[in-house]
Design goal:
By secondary structure, the chain is of the alpha/beta class. Among the domains are: about 90 residues, OB fold (Dihydrolipoamide Acetyltransferase, E2P), CATH 2.40.50; about 140 residues, Succinyl-CoA synthetase domains (Rossmann fold, 3-Layer(aba) Sandwich), CATH 3.40.50; about 40 residues, no CATH class. Helix content is about 50%, strand content about 20%. The chain is built from 12 helices and 13 strands. The strands form 3 sheets. The protein has a 5-stranded mixed barrel with strand order 1-2-3-5-4. A hairpin with a 4-residue loop joins strand 2 and strand 3. Helix 4 runs parallel beside helix 8 and helix 5 runs parallel beside helix 6. It is elongated and about 180 Å long. This is Exodeoxyribonuclease 7 large subunit. Bidirectionally degrades single-stranded DNA into large acid-insoluble oligonucleotides, which are then degraded further into small acid-soluble oligonucleotides.
Amino acid sequence: MTASNTAIFSVSELNLKARKALERNMGEVWVEGELSNVSRPASGHIYFTLKDDRAQIRCALFRQRARFVAAPMRDGDQVKLRGRVSLFEPRGDYQLIAEAVQAAGLGELLAAYERLKVQLESEGMFANARSLPFPPRKILILSSASGAAIRDVLAVLAARWPLADVTLIPVPVQGAEAAPAMISALGLLNRQARLDPDQDVVLITRGGGSLEDLWAFNNEHLARAIFHSRLPVMSAVGHEVDVTLADFAADMRAPTPSAAAERLVPDQQALKQQLSQLENRLRRAMQARLERDSQRLDTLRARLRHPGEQLDRQRQHVTALYQRLQRAMQQSVQQQQTRVTQLSKRLASQDMARLHRAEQERISQLQRRLASAMQRALEVRQARLSSAARELNAISPLAVLGRGYAIAQDEKGHVIRRAEDTVPGQKLSLRLGEGRLNVEVKRRYKK
C-alpha cells in the first residue's frame, strides 16, 4: 500500500476522527480514582488527574458543572467521577470530561460530615459559648478507661492542680456503641447535677486516630446532646488537626487531651510563683511605707516642742499683753485728767452773767427776724394765691357758663357734644351758670 492509493489525513483531521470515535463508542462512564494535580485557573474550570496505582488520565471539570460539586476537590481525595471520554484535539491528549464528582470511601465520610455540619450549624447547634468555672470544683471525664488520653489528662491534672475532684465515667470512644454510650452518660450526669450542684464541668476526650476511628464524635445525636447539656462541656478529641462535630457543639474545644487538662485547671507552680512575686512586692511596699512613715515621724518629732515650752511662751505673751494694757489705761486716765483740768480753767475764766445777757439778746434778735420773715413769706404766698385764683377763674368752665352757656349731660353724667349722641325722648341735665335744668329731647337737628 502506497500513499498514492490511500487516504491521507492531516493531524487535525486525525484527532477530530479520534475524538468522535471515542465519544461515540464510549459514551458516559463512571470512574473511581485518586485526585492529583488539581488546578483552578481564573476561568473557573477545574483541571486534574485521576489515577490509581497503575494508570492515570487527564480530566476537566468545566465551570458550569464545577459549581454543583459540594465538597472541595483536593489532592489525595478518593472520588467517583461521571463523565465522557474525549480527546483534546490541539494537543492530541486523551481526557475525561467530568459531569459530576462524588466523594468515594473516606471522601464519602467527609461529604457526610460536611452535610451534617452545615445542617447543625444552620440550626444553631454550634452556638454554645458558656464560660467554664475556673478552677472547677469537680471534673467529670467521659473517656475510655484504658486509653492514653485519660492517662495524659490525669497526669496533667495531678501535676497542675491536685485539689481537683476528678471522676472518670468509662465509655467506649470508638465503634457503633460509642455515641449511644456517651449520650446516655451525659444525660445521667445532667440529671445528677440537679441533686449535686458541685459538678462543674464535663470533659469528653480520646486520643488521635483515623477519621473512621473518630467517627463516633461526628454523631448527630451526640452533638445535640452536648448542645443541650446543662453542664458546660469541653471537647478534646484526637490531635490538633482533628475537628469533630462534638468540638463544634461543645462550650470549649481543646486541640489535645493534655491541652484540655491545662485549660481546665490553673498551674499550681505558676500560682506559687505569682504568689511569691506578690509577696515580694508586698514586702517591698511595706518596707517603703515604713521608711516613708519613719521619715515623716522624724520630721514631726523635730517640729514637736515640749508642752512646758509652749506654756512658757504663752505665759510670756500674756504678761506682755497685761503690761501693755496697764500702760494704756494709765495714759488714758492721765489724758482725761488733763482735759478736765483744762475745761475747769476755761470755765473759771468765763463771766456767766455776761454770757447769759449775750445769749438773751441773740435770742431776741432771732425772734424779730423770724417774725419779719414769716410776714414777708405770708404776703408773697397771698399774692401768688390771688394770681392763681384769677388764672383759674379765667379758664374755669363755670366762668363760661356765667356768660350764658350750658353743659348738657346724659343720665350717666356723660357730656353731650353732638346732637347725634342723643335720641328723641332722652332725658338730659343742663348745667347753667347758676343751677341745673332737667330737659327732654324732642327733636335733633343736623349741622
